[in-house]
Amino acid sequence: MVERAHVRTGATGTVPPTAHPDIVLITRHYYVVIENIAYFYRDGNNVFIRLITSEDYILNQSLDAIEPRLDKRYFSRVPRYMIANHDAINAYHPLKQGKLGLTLRPEYREPVYVSKPTARKFKQWFEV
């Protein structure tokens, strides 16, 4: 079952004191630290978060609103419909016409590609 969630960053009065300072997701009763996030993705008009445990939660914010709140060392916009955690990307491989194919963990339901214009930037980010 998909649960509705709200994305927040930084320490506020709602953040439990024992949690990691980089809390990204807060629902009514559920907190997620950044290390547990595999990727964010858009499906139709909805944005979801997929955890490393393969659980999905629906968010009430766009990828454009979420992206600036994430540490660019660990998260990158791969295709336009996804922001992936570096640790969730197992590998990438070259495809025709300069594109890259990504292998994600947990798997996404369809192949994920990095476009030719962003492939070089992605490789530099991934290799760091």
Keywords for this entry:
128 residues, mainly beta, OB fold (Dihydrolipoamide Acetyltransferase, E2P), eight-stranded mixed β-sheet, 2 helices, 11 strands, 39% strand, globular, HTH LytTR-type domain-containing protein, LytR-like, phosphorelay response regulator activity
In short:
A hairpin with a 4-residue loop joins strand 7 (75-77) and strand 8 (82-85). The chain has 128 residues and is mainly beta. It has helices at residues 63-66, 116-127; strands spanning 3-7, 23-26, 31-33, 37-43, 46-51, 56-59, 75-77, 82-85, 89-94, 100-104, 112-114.
How many angstroms does the end-to-end distance come to?
36 Å
Mean pLDDT: 82
Label the overall shape.
globular
CATH topology-level fold name: OB fold (Dihydrolipoamide Acetyltransferase, E2P)
H and E string = EEEEEEHEEEEEH
Count of all domains:
1
- According to DSSP, the number of beta strands is 11
From the 3D coordinates, which CATH architecture would you assign?
A: Beta Barrel
Uncertain runs are 1-21
Query: Structural class per helix/strand content?
Result: mainly beta
Helix content percent band: 10-25%
| Number of continuous helical runs | 2
| CATH class call | Mainly Beta
Organism: Chitinophaga caeni
GO molecular function, one term: phosphorelay response regulator activity
Protein name: HTH LytTR-type domain-containing protein
Domain HTH LytTR-type: 30-128
